[in-house]
Amino acid sequence: METVEIKNIKLSNGIDFSMIGLGTFRNADDKKMFIEAVKYAIKIGYRHIDGAWLYGIEDAIGQAVREVIEESNGSLKREDLFIVSKIWNTFHSRGEARKCLDEILNNLATPYVDLLLVHWPMGFAENLGLGPFPKNEQGNRLYSDVHFLETYHALEDFVKEEVLDNCEIKPVNNQIEITPYLQNKNLVEFCQKNGIVVSAYGPLGAGQKSTTRPDLPVLLENEVLVKIAKKHEKTPAQVCLRWGIQRNIVMLPKSITPKRILENAQIFDFELTDEEMQEISKLDQNYRVYGVEMLANHKYYPFHQD
Questions:
Q1: Which residues of this UniProt protein bind substrate (predicted)?
Q2: 119 annotated to bind ligand
Q3: So which residues are the catalytic ones?
């Protein structure tokens, strides 16, 4: 089996953070296929698995981790892996955040997670039994007034309880959507100046034509990326990922296809030139694939400006 060596970046607390992680959002309806994909990723060298309570598949992540460790005959341990999860919006108050973490740990069947994030800063109404996106009878979204700092203080409590392994009081990571069409230059610069490592979800775009921006080519079919990929004998996806790595951004591509899982990590054997980085920089459209504009009336909505 071909393997890969994935480079790390240091978090501000000194912990190594793999610069390529396996994204798991909407990754498979077939649980068995998803488990095999996670196991394959770990076997070839992935150590960073990005999950979340909302995704509803952390039990499968946990099963994959247990199986691959058992099959390794002692060569792989839980502490070799870096598992990320996220507190969902309906659990933003201090007590509810604890409930969410308990569910996460129970689903993963692990005593701790390595990094715990606040999924979004916008809190939703809690304890209504209306699912992760609660609405009233008129179809209006139901919000809470809980400030995201209260949720963050709950995370600080978890560190003291030793159920959250690699988190410090100072934020170490901010996960945001980043692609060549959404480069988030100001936010990335702010985070990096303040010692916060940025990681990128959805770094390869949606894989289909935008309904809101029909003028934009599908990201991986963009002629600039195709041209650069051809020059380096790589795929456009690998060029996107390499572009992010050269910005010191951790990239979280998702796939359940072994060939693509492998290719997504084979990006440390080439380098984009300054000219190529500039070409890609000019593709920025401030275009979000995973837009959350429907939450723009929330008092803590953060995207009114870049």
A1: 119
A2: yes
A3: 55
